[in-house]
Amino acid sequence: MKKMSKKLVWLLLLVMVTTLFTACSEPTATSAPASNESTEVAAEVEKPIKIGISLPTQREERWVLDKENFERVAEELGVEVAVQIADNDAARQQSQCENLISQGVDVLIIAPHDGAAAANIVNMAHEAGIKVISYDRLIMNSPVDLYLTFDSLIVGEMQAEWVLSQAPTGNIALLAGDPGDYAAVLYRQGALNVLQPKIDSGDITLVLDQECKDWQPSEALRHIENVLTVHNNDIQGIVAPNDGTAGAAIQALAAQGLAGKVPVSGQDAEVDAIKRIIEGTQGITIFNDIRDLGRAAIESAIKFANNEPVETKKSYNNGTHDIPTIEAPPALVDINNYLELVIESGFMDESALQ
């Protein structure tokens, strides 16, 4: 027994030593590489989507509100935005977008100052694998990935229909926005859709049809001053494409004692426009709820960044391509409904009108 026990002890010792040697000789798996790899993957997953946004100007209240809305929605949805302002300069907009592309943005949202010139930006973005959303203004002659806008033809039609409802006969002046803005082209076309039959029938005479470069109110003021002079103040209505040009037209009318006597349309539901509607010098403004359009743009950009499809029901041809389009409906605002549409909806604080 003793002898057997001794052998057993030596056998157990041998097994223990062998096991220990084997354990020491085998490479021990370290957690560092797996941890590093996991950290890299986590960092990649957690990296926020970055959206580049290029806006044409901050000179108009409408575009100031667009910028604020983009930033608010982006924060709410947990994405990063880098916003650049072109200050109505196509070359500057291209340079700024080149910078956004070099920063590695995931998607680019552009409201072009010049729709034709911005085609170069689309090409550069696509070369970098970045999709482009054309916001409110269509980028021409390029394979834009998505277009978000309001129904611009209907906007022009609504403006002209209202003016004719107030002035069914007589001399009518038509102002248009910047010729490089595709939306401005559509506003004018929509207005002419309504005005032309009345022109053909002889009910009205179109005494002015002028574009306003860069949407500048100073351009509108000059055009309306000139037409009032040429026609000895014999003007029955003015179709103005937005509130800035409408305000300038009303300024020209006021100088001749005609403010409030000649119906004037507008667009964008700016604070000053609502004030003029209340005081009776501007008849209407078209309300395009940029809160909804801006949210749709950010949500679409997030889907693009995640390689998800964006559903659309319409398209616009930009000269070379049919661009998938998301379109929002406009609303006509006048003295009877401004409280409901603009104030009670939360778009504008009533205190701003004081």
UniProtKB/TrEMBL annotation:
Q: What highest taxon heads this organism's lineage? A: Bacteria
Q: Does the keyword NAD apply?
A: no
Taking the first listed entry, what is the main subcellular location of this protein, grouped into a coarse class? other
PANTHER family, alphabetized: D-XYLOSE-BINDING PERIPLASMIC PROTEIN
In Swiss-Prot or TrEMBL terms, this protein is called Substrate-binding domain-containing protein
Leader sequence residues? 1-22
Q: Where is the chain membrane-spanning? A: none
Per UniProt, subcellular location reads as: Cell envelope
Q: Which UniProt keywords apply?
A: Signal
Pfam families named in the record: Peripla_BP_4
Q: What is the species of this protein?
A: Anoxynatronum sibiricum
Entries under InterPro entries matching the protein: Bact_Solute-Bind_Prot2, Peripla_BP_I, SBP_2_dom
Q: Which residues form the Periplasmic binding protein domain?
A: 51-308
